[in-house]
Amino acid sequence: MAFLHAMGAFGFFGFMAAWYLCVIVHEAGHALAALACGLKIIAIEIGPIKLRRRELDTERFPFKLKWEWSRPYGGITRMRFPRVALSRPTLRYLLMVCGGPSASLLLFLLAMLLATRTSGFASLAFLFVAVTSSVVVGATLFPTRGKRFDSDGRRILDLVFIPSLREWHVEKVLYVERLACFKTAFRSGDMPGASEQLERMRKACRTPKDKVLLDIVNHLQEHLISGESVDDCQWSPQAAEAK
Questions:
Q1: For 138-171, how does the pLDDT look when each residue is reduced to its tens digit (9 = 90+)?
Q2: 40 with 82: CB under 8 angstroms?
């Protein structure tokens, strides 16, 4: 802070510009890796800018823009598995998680290269971007568990080395598709298939913050027992991923 104070407003705005550039590149890495793996992006958040997919893809632009200042400095990419991409979900999810840190690392290497090939203000600016990107790499790869989201490093460790947590991470992402499969099986009279989907959905409910997902499973279980229609149970991908 003393460094920024000494540089004045120019230093502050320069730091913020470099920070948001690094966040954009990081989230773009997640998004591009998700698309390459056949996943469907439902939300991208860059600081206060939130792009969330509309409930219906009938609009020319399928995302709606929203300003929200609850997390003004970070970034999040939310996605889900279309049913056509249900094969090898663990590998697909792992590659998506690795996409963000990989993009940040590439930005660091590129900025360092440009810093050595230029001079004066340009060299200082590229060096500033490189240092900021290295901070993003270190912060996202540090294995921490947050109140709402785990860091990329924590998820990578879980997916690679801890089978029970690997299944939990993947089943949370698959929750929306499991719900759709449950409704299809239920309406066609395939009660064993519907019951199997419920059991898979329960595996997504491991922590107290997953209680809302478990409530949906219990609600559907009541429909399975009573045989009543499940059409009154509405649950959007955005709501499931936001919890």
A1: 999 999 988 778 899 999 999 999 998 999 999 9
A2: yes
